[in-house]
Fold this sequence. Notes:
The complex is a heterodimer of chains A (634) and B (606).
Chain A: H1 3-8, H2 12-21, H3 24-31, E1 36-40, H4 46-61, E2 68-72, H5 75-87, E3 96-100, H6 101-113, H7 130-144, H8 152-160, H9 167-172, H10 174-189, H11 195-208, H12 210-219, E4 222-225, H13 232-243, E5 249-254, H14 268-276, E6 281-285, E7 287-288, H15 293-303, E8 310-311, E9 318-323, H16 328-346, E10 355-359, H17 362-374, E11 379-382, H18 392-410, H19 415-425, H20 432-448, H21 456-474, H22 479-491, H23 503-507, E12 516-520, E13 529-534, H24 549-563, E14 566-574, E15 578-579, E16 585-586, H25 592-601, E17 627-631
Parallel strand pairs in A: 1-5, 1-6, 2-3, 2-4, 4-5, 7-8, 9-14, 10-12, 10-13, 11-12, 13-14
Antiparallel strand pairs in A: 9-17, 15-16
Chain B: E1 2-11, E2 14-20, E3 25-28, H1 35-46, H2 52-55, E4 76-83, H3 89-95, E5 99-101, E6 106-115, E7 129-135, H4 145-150, E8 153-156, H5 162-167, H6 174-184, H7 187-205, H8 208-225, H9 242-247, E9 252-253, E10 258-259, H10 265-285, E11 292-297, H11 305-312, E12 331-337, H12 340-344, E13 351-356, E14 363-367, H13 375-387, H14 391-394, E15 397-401, H15 404-416, H16 421-424, E16 426-430, H17 437-443, E17 452-457, H18 472-484, H19 495-504, E18 507-510, H20 514-519, H21 524-534, H22 538-549, H23 556-566, H24 568-580, H25 590-605
Parallel strand pairs in B: 3-12, 3-13, 8-11, 11-12, 15-16, 15-17, 17-18
Antiparallel strand pairs in B: 1-2, 1-4, 4-6, 5-6, 6-7, 9-10, 13-14
Helix pairs in contact in B: 15-24, 17-18, 18-19, 21-22, 21-24
Amino acid sequence: MSLANASTAKPRYMHAAEDLRANSEQWSVYESGGNCVVLAGPGSGKTKTLTIKMARMLAEDVRPPRGIACITYNNQCARELRKRLSQLGAYEGRRAFIGTLHSFCLQSIVMPYAPLAGLSAANPVKVASTTEIKELQEKALKKLTDDERWGPRFDNYRRTHLNRTHPSWKHGDEQAAKVIETYEALLAEEGLIDFDSMVLTGLQLVREHAWVRKALKARFPILVIDEYQDLGRALHEIVTHLCFPEGMQLLAVGDPDQSIYGFTGAEPSLLRELAQRPDVAKIELKLNYRCGSEIIHASEAALGEERDFESASDEPGEISFHERPDGLDDQAKFICTELIPKALARRKGRKIGDIAVLYLDKNDGDAMAAAAATARFQFIRVDGNNPYQPSPVTYWLEDCAAWCVGGWRTGAVSLSDLVRRWLAFNSSPQSDHQRRNMRVALVRFLRDNRVPEAPLRDWLGKMLDGFLQTCLDRETGLRDDAEKVAKLLNAVSVDGALQRYTVAIFGGQKGSPDQLNLSTLHSAKGLEYDIVILPGLEEGRIPYYNDDDRAIREKRRLFYVGLTRARHEVHLLYSGWYENQYGRRFKDGPSRFVEDVQRRLGGGASGPSDKNLPGSPAHLKRDGAVQQVKITHK
Amino acid sequence: MRISRVQISNFRNFANLDVALGDHAVIVGENKVGKSNFLYALRLILDPSLPDTARKLREEDFWDGLARPLTSGDRVVISVDIADFESDDNQLAILAEHLIQAEPMVARLTYTWQPVAGLTTNPNKESDYEFIIYGGDRPENRINYEVRGRLPLELLPALRDCEAEMARWTRSPLRPILEKAAGMVDRDTLQTLAKGVDAATENLANIDEIKGVAGSITKKLTEMVGSAQALETALRFSPSDPDKLLRALRLFIDGGKRGLSEASLGSANILYFALKALEYDRLVADGDRDHTFLAIEEPEAHIHPSLQRLIFRNYLRPRLPVDNGTQGKSSTTLMTTHSPHIASVTPLRQIVILRTNTENKATEAASTAALDLTADEIADLERYIDVNRGELFLARGAILVEGDAERYIVPVLAKKQGYDLDELGISVCSISGTNFVPYAKLIGPTGLRIPFAVLTDLDPGAARNDGAVAPQRGLDRVAAILRAVGIEPPDGNDSDRLREAAEQNGIFLNNHTLEIGLFRPGLHGAFIQVMSEIGESEPMKQRMRDWGLNPASLDSARFLADIESVGKGRFAQRLATIVSHGECGSACPYYIRKGVEHVVGECQHR
């Protein structure tokens, strides 16, 4: 296409939209006006539909200087959306805010408006690091009680009792309220802000000041929210204040069935409630492009509810059950020595990166990592025992490494994006001259350090000494990132857990076809793999032995999320028993969720089971040797 | 949307300027006071056509009063506050992140030229400095081209040639308007019209006489340059290409009778402004920008004073309560002028006066935007200023008097005291009555801050004998004027304390009417002479002579009635001439002397 044609041709998003036309539900999202809630089942093309619709709204519905605010679950989702929008030719810098709830509250509400509303806001904002938060939480607890530890009780209370002036704040859980207030006072004393206070302050400003709502609506006449089900009550209240009395147009996308962050105050009912409003159109995306029909069938059983999802896939997919009576380590070994090699052999061209092992917690992760190391698999691990935790800076470091490893040649990583993010980290006032020097320092470093096989510690050390450490020390917004980078440096040191890490390994982790994916179920949100392996499915662990009804429902959804990550195969593993942290064994059999699936696939009654009821399929032997059950529906 | 406040520190003429602005601003000041620099300061923030290289200042751009060499603490800071935008979603969207006040919303944009961060020595070269532009008093909240592009300031420099600009298609403000209209014209219609015009032109060109003209031009050209190079000339009045047809349209005035070249410069100017205003309306309506700040430099060039008054009388004035002036809502005008004629017809609230502070030589500003005046007071003041051709605005000091008689006499008496008021730039202003309050508000310390004195009578008007009447009215008036300039008058009936406070604030009382006040301290001779020249009857002249010989015998009522009968103004006019010739001594009433000294002192003090 010539240059002249390119400028007069239809915008790219219009071509992309043609793909939605065949799916009437997706098309009706594209054509929607006014408030709209999209209930999007797994694999339903949610992100694609959302980005094309956003591109359309930016081009057709919102004229400059006004724009769209899009709130995502985390920074990774935000980057993905930004990338897709720019591929659609639509991402326009300042006009579209795309980011997390925290950054939206901080940048677009707290920083511009808190001082005007008489709330003291430290300038520049000092974000508390994980260590500082822990210290202050302990300090707050010590002031009031000796036999309590900071846990979900407090976080949850803080995130769900949002109106401090309401009597329920003081009287709901009197001690929790006192502890939280003490903690917040300590934060303020130090001039620090934590992630929750960004959101709580944002909500307070939106709730109390009509002019704040008015200013936000002027800038962003449209509010888009992705993964609504996991964003919690504070977001729900912000949305309620901005969209319904104030008239910001809402496009909320999510799946109540995939709501798995109850401990952060998220509830599936909030999105359902929103979808029921008379002034909101509800659209359900029911066609699943990811999972085979068999997997969908099984997942509905796991969920315990019929959703009428249809599969768009040609393959029905497979669910396999594996009883490994010798416990978790045995399951891990079985996965690495049997399941994975066979799965790789089963289909030509399949890579180990197409496989994910999704588990409950970091202890499972330790077992899996040990087995994978023994089997000499390269793997990428995402859980709480990761040698380092992700943060915007560590993500950026990974991308820098990816550029050095070969991204500079393939264009897979854009240098301008790396530079832009680097300059954004340096948000404190800098002279143009200093910013030019920072840019030069980064580009020069990257150019001179394209050394895939060099130990990561050398590469990283050089960057820290060169310019990164100065930035981390200076930027008060990066104090938690600084801690995480220090942890990473520690992990890659000569006696650290990642001592063997090279630049190539570090930069090639994400989506690498050569690395096995190890992750908690929670972190697998939004991802998809050809083959999903779920170990450790014991009754007492999932659901947890003392879960209440509400928690059990959430665990069911967690299991459901795990199943629906798979395109072709799901492998469910259990031993029928587990050990707690003190080594005590509990023999409660496999998880009731597993049995529900077995019953459904075995042609038994549908719906969730009572574990003690008879009716387990006959081919399931708890005490047998390796028993592989394969059921394939027509 | 309007600029509600401007602050400029250490830039060119300005050390620390801080001024409130109304809906529009007419910036008045003498030459060299810094009117263009004031606009340039705004351009640094708001003009998208100004390149960033121009945003880099030089050492000489720092205020002269700053000690050289400059230190790391010296910086140029310029900020504009913008108000009245919250009802427009687009404007609010642009400014929402730059607020400094929530209710009602006020946004601030700031330009700073400062030493680069981390500079350890004193700056001594250009690269030691940088400029930053930010919003909402948050230096990390940088603003970029977007704000300037959506809310641009456009400068129309002085001495532009409007007629030539309108004639040149690429620069003409008519172009975008016509092109937009052209885009909506049906192609077929256009084609048909073009053919019609073509045919008509053809017919015209085919008249033998006209053909002959074209032929003779071509012949001459051929003779001059040879047939190979000759241009083929044709006489037409419009190109036949339908696309060019509309461009060939020209604006005519007087119902199509005259072309623009025949318009007076003034009409061309105002036409130019009108087209610009239309263009700004269209740009906002099309969503290409959200507001325009139109900066006009000295539009009076080449325009006759009476025409200036005619043209600008309505330019910034709201015609209807719902309408924001002839400018429309999509633009704000900032106009500099040193023409008192333009200032004299400007709506009162829009006056900004720039003048030099005599102490530090910096330019400071005062404006009328925030004055506490009633609608009636504004109407009175505007009429006064109109009639007096805006002299108040350009005065360095003012002596406010009740009537024409004082206006003739005071300058003469001042000169006798050694003060040439003209030379000092001090105007004597007759307010034709005793309603000093609005004038005091306008030029007093809470208004334009022009040094002034009020000379007023105790008003024994109804009295037969001086001193016999309670001087209540004059004292009440003094108290009211004091309040108008922000001073709470002393309590109670202590008239001495009140007079003391009044004098400290430039208000001086005459215990009598003017003429008696003049007669008593020793101008009898002049009075006798005036009366002998213009007195209407011999008894009248004789009375004056008698009183002159024996001042104690003065019959005030008779005396005033006699002067009244020849006209107070005429009498004072003559009296002034005689006194100025120095024929009759130079005695000066106490209150006039004090008033003159007060203003002269204040002027020198500034």
